Amino acid sequence: MDKFKTVLNIANKQTNLGFGLVALLTAGGEQIFSSAVFKCPCNEMNFLYGMVFLLVPALALLLLGYILSKKTWKLLTGLCQRRAELCRWKTLVATGVALFQISTTALVAPSSWIAVALLNGEYFQCLMTGTNASVLNAHLCADKSSQAHCEMYVYRLPCGTVGSVPQADREDVLIKLRAESQILGWLLIAFIMLSNLMVTCLARCASPISYLQLKFWRAYAQEENDLINSFTAKHAKQLAERNLKSFFNQTPPEPLTTPSNKDWEKISSLYKFSTRDQYYSTLHRYVENCQETDSRMMRMSSATSGEATNTPAVLDFVDDARIAL
Known about the structure:
Layout: H1 2-12, H2 15-36, H3 46-68, H4 70-76, H5 83-86, H6 89-106, H7 108-120, H8 122-129, H9 134-141, H10 147-154, H11 167-205, H12 211-249, H13 261-268, H14 282-303
Helix pairs in contact: 1-2, 2-7, 3-6, 3-7, 3-8, 7-11, 8-11, 9-10, 13-14
C-alpha cells in the first residue's frame, strides 16, 4: 500500500503521466492476476465466475481510488456538521463538481482493468460459455440428437475437454468469443480516451485563466501541499514536546500559538480559482483576507477613537468556509 501511494504521489505531479502510470500498473496487475489466479471452472458457474473476475477487481480499484484521493476526505470531513449549507444550490453544485473530478481520477484504474481483461479474452470466454447462449448451442448442438447433453459441453469449451464436439468447432467458438471480447475492449478504450479528450477540451475552453497561469497554479498547489505537510509535522512536534515537558516537569506550558478550529475549517475546504480575487488556494485566500481584515479593523478602531470590538478578524473571511464556485 505504501509503495502504491508513493507511485500515486509521483504521478500526481503530472496529470497525464499519472493516468498513464496508473493504467500501466493496472494492466500489468491484470496480466499477472489472469495467469496466476484465474481458472475457469467449466461448469454451471462459468458466468458468475467470469463476471466476478471481470467486475469485482474493477470495483475494488474504484473504491481504492476514492480512498486514496485527498479530495474525497477533504470534501467529506465535517460534511455532516454542515447540513444546512448542503441545502444551498451553489454548495450542491460545487459538491457535485468535486465528486465528478474525484470520480474521473478514480475511474482510471477500474476502466483500465476491464479494458485489458476484455483484450485478453479469457474472462469473456468463460462468462459467455456460462450463459447457455442460443448462438453457441445452435452452432455446436444443431445436429446432435441429445441437445441438452450437448449444451453441457458448452461449459467445457474454455477447458478443452468437450467430449464429442469437434475440435474445429470448439476453436471456431473460442476465436469468435475472443474477437467479440477484444472488440468490446477496444471500443471501451476508444470511449475512455474520447471522453477524456472531450472533458479536457471543455474544461480548458471554459478556463478563466491562461495556459501559463494554470501551470503556475498547479506548481503553487504542489509546493503548498509539500510545505504544509512539513510545517504541520514540525508544529505538531513542537506542541507535543511542549506538553510533555510541562507534564514531566510539572510546570506551566510555554506559550505556543496554534490555529483554532475555525481557522482549520476555513483552509480545509475545496477551492476553485476565481478571477475576481485571484487566490490560488484556501490558505492563500485565508492569509490575504486576514491581512485585509486586520488593516480594516485598525482603520475602524482609529476612526471610532479606540472603540473595542468583540468580533475576531478571522470571522470576516471570504466565503465563510463554504466550497467556492
